[in-house]
Structure formats: structure tokens, C-alpha cells
Design a protein that fits this description.
With 135 residues, the protein is mostly helical. It has helices at residues 22-39, 59-72, 80-93, 98-105, 110-113, 121-131; strands at residues 5-9, 15-19. The protein has two domains: 1-57, no CATH class; 75-135, no CATH class. It has a two-stranded antiparallel sheet with strand order 1-2.
Length: 135
């Protein structure tokens, strides 16, 4: 919790460390203190996010929760994958190293991560002006 990094087990049982920000840390702290204890049972295991019956939160339920929260916030329809895509795009647009984003996303191949590099014209111009000696 102090380092704000969580270990995530993904496809093919691949584990990776994923950093998270202060707002997520606050929400996670509240969840662990107030909500998770009420859900825990013999099905919980090591899962962080639990469903109504105490077992690991399913992908279907995660999609449902994300869609419902977006609807309540009057946002366009969104999915967990869409949030993942947006986060990766923002990281890269903000100057994050492509290899770091690859690690966060858990991609085995850098080419899988390169789909997020559709850089905007403004970003290209900013990088050019910052890096070129005669810009």
C-alpha cells in the first residue's frame, strides 16, 4: 500500500506489478476497511476484489460495474478494456517509456504495446520543439 503498487495475475498466470495513484489508494483503503471484510469467506482466497458471494470478482461483473458507474456519471458507454486502453494512451502521450507501459499492461511483445502510439499532431510538435536545437 505504501508504494502504491499492486501485483496482478493476468492471462496465462502471468504476474506483473501495476502502480496506482493516490485517489485509487484512498478508495482501496476504504474498500479493504469497510467493504471487503463483509464479503470475505472460504471462497475469497487471495483475490483482492470480491463478488457478492465472497469469491473472486468475475470479468462479467467487473464489466457490469464499470458500465453502471459510467452511466451514473453520464459518461459514454465504457468497458474495463476501454479504460485500460485510455490509461495506456495517456501514459504514452504523457511521455512514458513504451517499455514501461508494456510492463504495466503485461504484454509479452512490444509490438502489442505499440498500438497505443497513435501520437497526436500536438504531441509530435511539442516533442519536436523540446528536442530539436533549431525548433
Amino acid at each position: 500500500m505504501e508504494r502504491r503498487v499492486i501485483n496482478v495475475v493476468g492471462k496465462r498466470n502471468k504476474e506483473r506489478a501495476v502502480p496506482y495513484g493516490a485517489p485509487a489508494a484512498d478508495s482501496l483503503r476504504d474498500y479493504l476497511k469497510w467493504s471487503r471484510p463483509d464479503l470475505e469467506n472460504e471462497l475469497s482466497g487471495t483475490a483482492l476484489l470480491l463478488g457478492e458471494r465472497g469469491g473472486r470478482l468475475s470479468a462479467t461483473m467487473a464489466r457490469k460495474i464499470v458500465r453502471e458507474r459510467a452511466r451514473r456519471a453520464q459518461l459514454p458507454q465504457v468497458s474495463p478494456h476501454g479504460l485500460r486502453h485510455s490509461a495506456a494512451t495517456h501514459l504514452i502521450d504523457g511521455g512514458a517509456d513504451l517499455r514501461a507501459v508494456q510492463e504495466i499492461l503485461g504484454h509479452a511483445s512490444l509490438s502489442s504495446t505499440q498500438i497505443y502510439t497513435h501520437v497526436s499532431a500536438e504531441r509530435l510538435k511539442a516533442v519536436y520543439e523540446q528536442a530539436h536545437p533549431r525548433a
